Amino acid sequence: MPAGVYLHLEEELEERFHCAPGPGGWRYTSTRPGLRTDIVVDSRWRQIRVELVTPGWWVRGGVTGPDVAWVRASGDTGTEHTEHALGFMSGSPGFLVAVARALDLADGAETDVRLVTFTGPSLAPLTAPWRWRRAGTSVHDTDTEPLPVTGYEVTDLSTGEIIQVHLAGDVVLDAPGIELTGLESPPNLSE
Q1: pTM confidence score
Q2: Which residues pair with 87 in a beta bridge?
């Protein structure tokens, strides 16, 4: 079960995380100052349960067929929302893993998807189109076993901004503004 620390470089905040495969999918939990994240995916990597909690707001939701549904609130009673989208995105690297694995692209393949992104301390939602391209996979030697690293080019189609993301199994090795600063055990490499 990988556990470790991501550093969010812009805010200089540490996100402590745990992730693990389970009998029916995968789970990622993390905490960083001002945000708690919990992502549960099924065996096809669909985000069946997502929870984000800040000091003043919370969001709970998941995939419901071709749509995502969520409740967003700043107290006990929230507002329900639905969008036609593949899943959710937020600042936590766990979302990059969940989306990349759900797409299940071959090297060189690309696809366009809609994602609901939650931003800021109020977890404001924004639905936008994204293009994910699997740029390729390289294998790196380690002390224990070869480590396959998959690169993705992710384009925000509403702005044209392109970012590079590198994953080793269920751990983000490199992404804009994110640095993996500690890893207590190897990533889960099973597809």
Answers
A1: 0.94
A2: 115
